[in-house]
Design goal:
Length: 262
């Protein structure tokens, strides 16, 4: 029997040819200069994004302020229950949220903690020698990277703004959660588009809610609890790196889709 990681890879391979065909059709019909996921990563708005470079775990410019909760609280609660805690931060910037979390932990708390960050740009702050066993920061494409474990907390703070196939990435992250694990990510539904449906954002929201996600429209936060291993019913056909600013005030990427079936 295939693991869920192998299934995800197989599903991705099947969709590639459909994405390629749909991408070409959409460009012809709409006259848009859409990019596939890998070309998008070379675009200046993605490779040089500054949205999440400086944030620490707490303080004025922090994850606590963006997410509405302090990740360290959940970590310490798990440690009090004598349970290890694994936090994956996708699009982690310099990794400062994870590194500052490690700084807050006591020597007795650190061995029970896994703090893992992934970002497209290799511009991480140095990892102190004492944090080597707890903190890992990896430069990789979010479209190629695969988790090898499950997590208690997965965050993506303002990272989805720069991802091509946002929906696939959302479902992929949700599949990496532990049974009671928590996913929280900033998502602007206005960056999800379709040439077939003028109300596509509403349709996506209904789909996400039906699949078990929650969405805070005021804070523009998508969340989920526990592993969700369904596939998106939409096919990614390309991304527009020239979409302009979204609610964050920073340049963002629009992701275009079409439905797999009417």
């Amino acid at each position: 029997m295939l693991s869920f990681h192998q299934n995800a890879a197989a599903n991705s391979a099947c969709v590639v040819s459909l994405e390629s065909l749909a991408y070409k059709i959409l460009r012809i019909i709409a006259g848009m200069e859409l990019l596939d996921e890998f070309a998008l990563e070379r675009a200046a708005v993605v490779a040089n994004n500054r949205m999440n470079r400086e944030r620490r775990v707490s303080g004025v410019n922090s994850y606590t302020r963006e997410l509405g909760f302090d990740p360290v609280d959940g970590l310490r609660a798990a440690i009090r229950r004598r349970e290890p805690f694994a936090w994956l931060d996708m699009c982690c910037g310099r990794g400062r949220a994870l590194l500052s979390t490690f700084e807050l932990l006591t020597p007795s708390e650190r061995p029970s903690t896994i703090l893992q960050g992934v970002d497209l740009v290799d511009a991480f702050d140095p990892i102190p020698a004492e944090a080597t066993g707890s903190v890992t920061l990896e430069a990789a494409s979010v479209h190629r990277w695969q988790a090898t474990r499950t997590y208690d907390l997965i965050t993506c703070v303002h990272g989805l703004h720069y991802v091509g196939d946002k929906l696939r990435f959302i479902f992929l992250m949700a599949s990496w959660l532990k049974g009671a694990g928590r996913l929280v990510a900033n998502l602007d539904l206005g960056n999800l588009r379709s040439t077939e449906d003028g109300h596509f954002a509403r349709r996506v929201r209904r789909c996400l809610l039906a699949e078990g996600f929650s969405y805070d429209a005021r804070r523009r936060l998508l969340s989920a609890v526990g592993p969700l291993r369904h596939n998106t019913p939409f096919i990614f056909v390309g991304a527009d790196p020239n979409a302009g600013p979204n609610y964050s005030g920073q340049e963002a990427v629009d992701s275009y889709y079409r439905a797999i079936s009417p």
